Amino acid sequence: MPWHSLRELTVQALLPMAMESLPLRDCLVAFAAGHLSLTDKSYQLPALEARCKALSSLSRSVNTASNEIGHHEANAAACLTFVICDVGVDAGEAWVNHLQAAQHIITTAKAVSSTGKVLEGPDAFKTSSEGEWILRNFAYHDIIGGMTTRKRPLLGATYLNDIADVVDSYVGVATDLLILAADIGRIEDETQTKQDAAPQEVQKSIANFHKRCADLQHQLQAWECQEGTATELAAVAYAYRSAILIVLYRLVRSRLRSGYFSSVSDVRSDARASRSIQDKIESHVEEILNHVAKVPLGATPESPLLFPLFIAGGEASRPAHMAALRSRLKHTLEQRRFLNIATALEVLEELWRRRGREDPELDWTDVLDEHGKQLLLT
User: Fold this and answer.
1) Helices (H), the chain
2) For residue 349, what are the contacts with CB-CB under 8 A and spacing of at least 6?
3) How many alpha carbons lie under 13 Å from residue 198 in its C-beta half-sphere?
4) Distances in Å between the alpha carbon of 80 and those of 27, 49, 103, 133, 264?
5) Sequence-ordered list of residues with C-beta below 8 angstroms from that of 141, at least 6 positions apart, any chain
6) How many CB atoms lie within 10 A of CB 113?
7) Longest pairwise C-alpha distance within the chain
8) CA atoms within 13 A on the CB side of 329
């Protein structure tokens, strides 16, 4: 499928639902007005009015009982529209609440299959193409959000297993990679060791961590686009693969710096491991830049590149890499005008400046924490 069809997929998914759902229609109008207000101040008051109307409309709809799965699909789509509006237009953190609201709608939904079987949760949404699109939309924001807020995804990712083999309107052919990315949060949570843990328990946890990281690394490295995938879509997918690998390596590096492996290694082996991890990270920064360069400026597939660009920027140490990332992010900001792109660029600029002058080990998470921000890179 050619890349220009991605926009058509988004329109096809949302507009039919909006024609049947006043709350979703109101949310789309609020988003459009809000986006216009970023460049035309005369829209600020109409945008505020539209947002208030959309919130009231959605609240009434969510509190209206219905056995129709289409009702729940439209409400979830409206919540996700607010997520985009919250991060791109308002630059606030209400997106967390709207994402949790979408999660609740998805997990509590019920539908009856063509065979008469009662389906619940994500399975209920799989009874229609619109519902499957909503699940992929939710997963994109949930999983990418988890990697920057350092929390496990709200719904995991197993529900994507049988609906990932499509060209999605957000990440193209990279939905499979989101399934793998969701494992990073689980690995981090499930391999933590308690301070009073017995030596045998600590070693078991470390061995589990090693195995799961190695398995995930192998799956990511082995992942490939299907033959015939458009160049731009493949470039986006491979940029995502490198970014997810960097997030995985960052977890390993964090454990090394914390002394997690001290009971089974020595200083010299930890130093060698740290150098190896850093070399891998730097190679994938280069890979991301190479892949991003294959996506034409202004092309539709450029829209999901904020995540890999930011992750690469957080590890960039060469002036040429920083300049290339800065240039692409500035162009993306000019094209889309979303405030989370501006925030991402501001965080990177501060990181690069302070890392060069104050603390070479300063991390983008430190900058976000200092400013009390939760950045969603979608």
Assistant:
1) 5-20, 22-37, 44-62, 69-85, 95-108, 122-125, 129-149, 175-190, 199-222, 231-258, 267-292, 306-315, 319-336, 339-357, 364-371
2) 326
3) 3
4) 9, 19, 10, 11, 45
5) 80, 83, 95, 99, 376, 378
6) 12
7) 66
8) 27
Rg (CA), the chain: 21
Residue type (1 letter), 189: D
Terminal alpha carbon distance of the chain: 22
- Integer angstrom CA distances of residue 205 from 110, 132, 202: 39, 36, 5
Q: Is the model's pTM score more than 0.85?
A: yes
- The domain segmentation of the chain, as residue ranges, is 1-170, 198-378
d(CA 366, CA 146): 16
Amino acid at 190: E
C-beta separation of 305 from 292 below 8 A: yes
Amino acid identity at 35? H
Q: What is the pLDDT along the chain (378 residues), one digit of tens a residue?
A: 333 333 444 555 677 788 889 999 999 999 989 999 999 999 999 999 999 999 999 999 999 989 899 999 999 999 999 999 999 998 778 899 999 999 999 999 998 887 888 999 999 999 998 999 999 999 999 999 999 888 899 999 999 999 998 888 788 899 999 999 999 999 998 998 877 788 888 899 999 999 999 999 999 999 999 999 999 999 999 999 999 999 999 999 999 998 888 877 777 888 899 999 999 999 999 999 999 999 998 887 888 999 999 999 999 999 999 999 999 999 999 988 899 999 999 999 999 999 988 899 999 999 999 999 889 998
